[in-house]
Design goal:
It holds the Pfam family NDK. This protein has 138 residues and is of the alpha+beta class. 40% of the residues lie in helices and 19% in strands. The protein has one domain (2-134): Alpha-Beta Plaits (2-Layer Sandwich), CATH 3.30.70. The chain is globular. The structure holds adenosine-5'-triphosphate (ATP).
Amino acid sequence: TQRSLVLVKPDGVRRGLTGEVIRRIEAKGYTLVALELRTATREILAQHYAEHEGKPFYEPLVEFMLSGPVAAMVIEGERVIEGFRSLGGATDPTTAAPGTIRGDLGRDWGLAVQQNIVHGSDAPESAEREIGIWFPGL
Ligand code: ATP
């Protein structure tokens, strides 16, 4: 089986959508293997978003991700990386397909950063890297 690192971002936690995200993950049949509500740090985010460093949305993204707690979790299941990205939907919540987390629950708030409720790892190597960042030792 496979593991993925999922975050309910600060907008999702603030809006009370943590339970809804977990409900969809569990209803799909994936297993929660770690779950923690916590506020990120610049150190963690610098690692987590290393690939975006230098992009125009990088600083606003980091500030947004520091704006409140995130629900960090590791989920497990056959092809869970692809599976969760499919549950989450496209990055832009305005055009993400209805039926997905972002498509059903997200929209464009006219802010500098896409506030799109969730993060999910995009490949096996990034999943293991991100799990090491958020849950060292797991
Ligand atoms: P993730 O699950 O990490 O969000 P993603 O493919 O949806 O993956 P990435 O391209 O990895 O998104 O970008 C990471 C995050 O940065 C996005 O989820 C979004 O919050 C923000 N972001 C990405 N592109 C833009 C953009 N053009 N303008 C503003 N914010 C952006």
